């Protein structure tokens, strides 16, 4: 499993760190984010950020998705 973040913007569409977030969870592998992006996302009070996991191993290459893995929100 690859470590990831499940990120939502509860108030609706919101851009941070060059990425768009919405009410639907967006799951992004940690290794797909730069250190700067990670800091901006985690520090943004308008985003809800939770730890998540994606299938595969850390060597399989980057993937981003819209479906939450693990804890789903509706």
Number of helices: 1
The top level CATH class name: Alpha Beta
Give unreliable regions as ranges.
60-74
Q: What structural class do you assign from the helix and strand content? A: mainly beta
- N-to-C order of helices and strands: EEEEHEE
Q: Using the CA coordinates, give the radius of gyration.
A: 11 Å
Query: From the structure provided, what is the oligomeric state, counting identical versus distinct chains?
Result: single chain
Helix-strand layout with pairing:
Blueprint: E1 2-8, E2 14-16, E3 19-21, E4 26-29, H1 35-42, E5 48-54, E6 64-65
Written account of the structure:
- With 74 residues, the chain is mainly beta.
- The protein has one domain (2-56): 3-Layer(aba) Sandwich (Ribosomal Protein L9, domain 1), CATH 3.40.5.
- The chain contains one helix and six strands; from the N terminus they run E-E-E-E-H-E-E.
- The chain has one helix at residues 35-42, and strands at 2-8, 14-16, 19-21, 26-29, 48-54, 64-65.
- Strands 5-1-4-6 form a four-stranded antiparallel β-sheet, with no helix packed on it. It has a two-stranded antiparallel ribbon with strand order 2-3.
- A hairpin with a 2-residue loop joins strand 2 (14-16) and strand 3 (19-21).
